[in-house]
Specification:
Length: about 170
Protein backbone atom coordinates (compact mmCIF):
# COMPACT_ATOMS: atom_id res chain seq x y z
CA UNK A 1 0.00 0.00 0.00
CA UNK A 2 1.31 3.44 -0.83
CA UNK A 3 0.62 6.39 1.46
CA UNK A 4 1.31 9.99 0.58
CA UNK A 5 2.06 12.39 3.37
CA UNK A 6 0.07 15.58 3.12
CA UNK A 7 1.81 18.46 4.78
CA UNK A 8 -0.13 21.66 5.22
CA UNK A 9 1.85 24.76 6.12
CA UNK A 10 0.38 26.58 9.06
CA UNK A 11 2.39 29.77 8.68
CA UNK A 12 5.36 31.11 10.59
CA UNK A 13 6.16 33.31 13.55
CA UNK A 14 8.89 35.89 13.92
CA UNK A 15 10.77 34.98 17.10
CA UNK A 16 12.53 37.95 18.70
CA UNK A 17 14.72 37.76 21.79
CA UNK A 18 16.44 40.45 23.83
CA UNK A 19 19.00 39.27 26.38
CA UNK A 20 20.19 41.27 29.37
CA UNK A 21 23.59 39.70 29.99
CA UNK A 22 24.12 41.50 33.31
CA UNK A 23 20.92 40.15 34.85
CA UNK A 24 20.64 36.86 32.90
CA UNK A 25 17.16 37.77 31.77
CA UNK A 26 15.51 37.31 28.39
CA UNK A 27 12.58 39.08 26.80
CA UNK A 28 10.72 37.10 24.15
CA UNK A 29 8.24 38.20 21.51
CA UNK A 30 6.47 36.11 18.91
CA UNK A 31 5.18 38.34 16.13
CA UNK A 32 3.25 37.46 12.98
CA UNK A 33 5.89 39.08 10.76
CA UNK A 34 9.38 40.50 10.93
CA UNK A 35 10.09 44.15 10.32
CA UNK A 36 10.53 47.51 11.95
CA UNK A 37 7.25 47.28 13.85
CA UNK A 38 8.07 43.89 15.36
CA UNK A 39 11.56 44.99 16.38
CA UNK A 40 10.26 48.23 17.91
CA UNK A 41 7.62 46.23 19.83
CA UNK A 42 10.45 44.26 21.43
CA UNK A 43 12.41 47.43 22.19
CA UNK A 44 9.32 49.06 23.73
CA UNK A 45 8.65 45.93 25.82
CA UNK A 46 12.14 46.13 27.30
CA UNK A 47 12.65 49.90 27.51
CA UNK A 48 9.33 50.53 29.27
CA UNK A 49 10.52 48.52 32.29
CA UNK A 50 12.97 49.37 35.03
CA UNK A 51 15.94 49.51 35.20
CA UNK A 52 16.06 50.17 31.43
CA UNK A 53 13.59 53.08 31.38
CA UNK A 54 15.69 55.17 33.76
CA UNK A 55 19.16 53.87 32.84
CA UNK A 56 21.72 56.35 31.59
CA UNK A 57 22.40 54.15 28.52
CA UNK A 58 21.08 50.83 27.27
CA UNK A 59 23.16 49.18 24.55
CA UNK A 60 21.30 47.18 21.91
CA UNK A 61 23.76 44.90 20.10
CA UNK A 62 22.05 43.66 16.96
CA UNK A 63 22.89 41.90 13.74
CA UNK A 64 22.31 43.59 10.39
CA UNK A 65 18.74 42.47 9.90
CA UNK A 66 16.67 44.77 7.71
CA UNK A 67 14.48 45.91 10.62
CA UNK A 68 17.39 47.37 12.57
CA UNK A 69 20.11 48.12 10.02
CA UNK A 70 21.87 51.39 9.36
CA UNK A 71 21.69 54.97 10.51
CA UNK A 72 17.92 55.21 10.05
CA UNK A 73 17.39 52.39 12.54
CA UNK A 74 19.77 53.98 15.05
CA UNK A 75 17.99 57.33 14.68
CA UNK A 76 14.57 55.68 15.04
CA UNK A 77 15.69 53.93 18.23
CA UNK A 78 17.20 57.01 19.88
CA UNK A 79 14.21 59.14 18.90
CA UNK A 80 11.87 56.71 20.65
CA UNK A 81 14.27 56.04 23.56
CA UNK A 82 17.01 58.66 24.01
CA UNK A 83 19.00 56.41 26.35
CA UNK A 84 19.15 53.55 23.82
CA UNK A 85 22.34 53.04 21.79
CA UNK A 86 22.28 50.75 18.75
CA UNK A 87 25.44 48.76 17.99
CA UNK A 88 25.70 46.50 14.95
CA UNK A 89 27.74 43.32 14.69
CA UNK A 90 29.78 42.86 11.53
CA UNK A 91 27.89 42.02 8.37
CA UNK A 92 27.26 38.26 8.13
CA UNK A 93 28.22 37.81 11.77
CA UNK A 94 24.77 37.43 13.30
CA UNK A 95 26.07 34.33 15.10
CA UNK A 96 27.87 36.76 17.42
CA UNK A 97 24.65 37.99 18.98
CA UNK A 98 24.25 36.39 22.39
CA UNK A 99 20.54 35.73 22.00
CA UNK A 100 21.27 33.12 19.32
CA UNK A 101 23.31 31.04 21.74
CA UNK A 102 20.64 30.97 24.46
CA UNK A 103 17.57 30.47 22.29
CA UNK A 104 15.89 27.08 22.47
CA UNK A 105 17.07 24.67 19.79
CA UNK A 106 13.63 24.35 18.21
CA UNK A 107 13.56 28.08 17.45
CA UNK A 108 16.54 27.74 15.13
CA UNK A 109 15.05 25.05 12.90
CA UNK A 110 11.60 24.36 11.51
CA UNK A 111 9.43 22.35 13.87
CA UNK A 112 8.10 19.04 12.68
CA UNK A 113 4.43 19.23 11.65
CA UNK A 114 3.41 16.99 14.55
CA UNK A 115 5.14 18.97 17.29
CA UNK A 116 3.12 22.18 17.09
CA UNK A 117 -0.06 21.93 15.08
CA UNK A 118 -0.90 25.64 15.38
CA UNK A 119 0.95 28.94 15.48
CA UNK A 120 -0.56 29.65 18.89
CA UNK A 121 0.93 26.44 20.31
CA UNK A 122 4.29 27.20 18.69
CA UNK A 123 4.24 30.69 20.21
CA UNK A 124 3.35 29.28 23.62
CA UNK A 125 6.28 26.86 23.46
CA UNK A 126 8.67 29.65 22.56
CA UNK A 127 7.35 31.95 25.29
CA UNK A 128 7.62 29.13 27.85
CA UNK A 129 11.35 29.23 27.19
CA UNK A 130 11.42 32.78 28.58
CA UNK A 131 9.91 31.62 31.88
CA UNK A 132 12.27 28.63 32.19
CA UNK A 133 15.36 30.66 31.33
CA UNK A 134 14.52 33.58 33.62
CA UNK A 135 13.83 31.18 36.51
CA UNK A 136 17.15 29.34 36.27
CA UNK A 137 19.78 31.48 34.51
CA UNK A 138 22.63 33.17 36.37
CA UNK A 139 24.65 36.14 35.16
CA UNK A 140 28.03 35.27 33.75
CA UNK A 141 30.82 36.21 36.14
CA UNK A 142 33.65 37.82 34.22
CA UNK A 143 37.13 36.92 35.43
CA UNK A 144 39.01 39.20 33.02
CA UNK A 145 39.42 42.58 34.75
CA UNK A 146 40.49 45.98 33.46
CA UNK A 147 43.87 45.36 35.15
CA UNK A 148 44.18 42.15 33.14
CA UNK A 149 43.41 44.12 29.98
CA UNK A 150 46.02 46.77 30.85
CA UNK A 151 48.62 44.04 31.40
CA UNK A 152 47.75 42.35 28.10
CA UNK A 153 47.96 45.62 26.16
CA UNK A 154 51.33 46.44 27.78
CA UNK A 155 52.69 42.99 26.83
CA UNK A 156 51.43 43.42 23.27
CA UNK A 157 53.04 46.86 23.13
CA UNK A 158 56.38 45.47 24.32
CA UNK A 159 56.15 42.63 21.79
CA UNK A 160 55.49 45.12 18.97
CA UNK A 161 58.53 47.19 19.95
CA UNK A 162 60.76 44.10 20.20
CA UNK A 163 59.45 42.54 16.94
CA UNK A 164 58.31 45.32 14.58
CA UNK A 165 58.27 43.00 11.55
CA UNK A 166 55.55 40.89 13.18
CA UNK A 167 53.29 43.88 13.76
CA UNK A 168 52.91 44.65 10.07
CA UNK A 169 49.48 43.85 8.64
CA UNK A 170 49.33 40.62 6.69
CA UNK A 171 47.15 40.01 3.68
CA UNK A 172 45.69 36.62 2.98
CA UNK A 173 45.76 35.41 -0.60
Amino acid sequence: MRVDHAYGRGGALAYLVAHDVHRAKVFVRCEPTTGIGSFMNLVTQVMSQEPYASAKRVFWIVDNGSSHRGKAAAARLTTAFPNAVLIHTRVRASWLTKSRSISPPYSARPSRPTTSPTLAKSGNRLRAFEDRYNATAQPFQWKFTTSDLDDLLARLGRHTVDHPEESLPRLAA
